[in-house]
Amino acid sequence: MSLSPQSRRLWRDVTLFDGLHVLPVPMTVLVAGAQVAGLWPRGEFDERLAAGAVESGRGGVMTPGLIDCHTHLVYAGNRADEFEQRLEGASYAEIAKAGGGILSTVRATRAASEEQLIAASLPRLDALLADGVTTVEIKSGYGLTLADELKMLRVARQLGELRPVRVMTTLLGAHALPPEYAGRADDYIRLVCEEMIPAAAAAGLADAVDVFCEGIAFSPAQCELVFQAAQRHGLALKAHAEQLSNLGGSALAARYGALSADHIEYLDEAGVQAMAAAGTVAVLLPGAFHCLRETQLPPIDLLRQYGVPMALASDANPGTSPICMPSLLANLACTLFRLTPREALAGMTAHAANALGLPGLGRIVVGASADLCLWDIQHPAELAYAVQAGRLRQRIFNGAVSHE
Ligand code: NIG
Ligand code: FE
């Protein structure tokens, strides 16, 4: 490996969370180019290796760059009016049935140009970046026509060009039944399977395909058709499942080898077992749980018992989780779901990487991609403990410091 001296960076005396564990002693971290090149306990570092390296920081907490593995970041408009309706007693499902909810964002998103969608989405992306995100998954699902779904995916890809962040895109055509298909859900699913998935795959616009398996959305049988079409086109699978009721969507997703089943408040033991057997990651979304004032808790103990990896994501969206602050999500996961801070952080790093099919990310180990965060705190648990902006000292993406 021949690297110019300028491309080597050194951090000293950092408390290191490696994506799974907090290391017991302060560490020295060497980055060469876009990779983590070396890790040493303080005192064991050979100072000759420091020659020519840029001294980039001392002290603080270093974590892998955060991975937000479930967002609906691209959309137009907002739903503050529905927030007020819910405060007056209307439920999320009632608002959806009355043509609001997801469909109100569909109307605004269809009417928006790509430029307008980029302008609307960048502040949300910037908020995630300012709180340590280096990889973000972005779903479509507010277009619900071939052209508008592809438009959303193009916007998501462009966001990754405009900012130093890795964007993974997911086609969520099966998010809601568009009004023009009222009473013809099977026809709409055919459009998703026969037009949207092939077009998104051919254009390289989608890394994965997601479904909303729920009474107010699509049945397990319809979701299964979407999974089959996605598999025919070589795309990874994900599911919104067991959010409001238990339809067995998570077990179905697991049977199809899905990367993740997300929400899962109503998941039962059989579903947990199916996910464990398939290696499907459980993506917890405490922002939606909080905003909808849910009371049904996801089966955290069963997930632990069966060793199902738990990821944690913002679900950033205009309806159920208008939250673009990963550290707040870590706090909510601990407070509401009783995750430990270590579990919450692993959920936003190592396990989130697996939920996106990116197992090399989300870890700080030699050879890993140098996506790192340096925080002005004493211990990693503080990230989940306190809700406070501005603690990110540096964000390192692909070895380059992009926030200081
Ligand atoms: O993940 N559950 C379905 N989809 C989103 C909500 C989308 C919306 O309300 O706009 C979710 O919670
Ligand atoms: Fe979602």
What key attributes describe this structure?
single chain; 404 residues; alpha/beta; 8-stranded mixed β-sheet; 8-stranded parallel β-sheet; 15 helices; binds N-(iminomethyl)-L-glutamic acid; binds fe (iii) ion
Question: What do these coordinates show?
Answer:
The protein is an alpha/beta fold. The protein is 37% helix and 22% strand. The longest helix is centred in the middle third of the chain and has 18 residues, at 185-202. It is globular, with a radius of gyration of 21 Å. Fe (iii) ion (FE) binds at residues 70, 72, 240, 315, 317.
Question: What is the compact description of this entry?
Answer:
This protein has 404 residues and is α/β, with parallel strands linked by helices.
How is the topology of this model organized?
Blueprint: E1 8-16, E2 27-32, E3 35-41, E4 54-58, E5 61-64, E6 66-68, H1 80-87, H2 92-97, H3 102-111, H4 114-130, E7 133-139, H5 146-162, E8 166-174, H6 185-202, E9 208-213, H7 220-232, E10 236-241, H8 249-255, E11 260-263, H9 269-278, E12 281-284, H10 286-291, H11 300-305, E13 310-312, H12 326-337, H13 341-347, H14 350-355, E14 372-375, H15 381-385, E15 392-397, E16 400-403
Parallel strand pairs: 1-4, 1-5, 6-7, 7-8, 8-9, 9-10, 10-11, 11-12, 12-13
Antiparallel strand pairs: 1-2, 2-3, 5-14, 14-15, 15-16
Bound molecules: N-(iminomethyl)-L-glutamic acid and fe (iii) ion (FE).
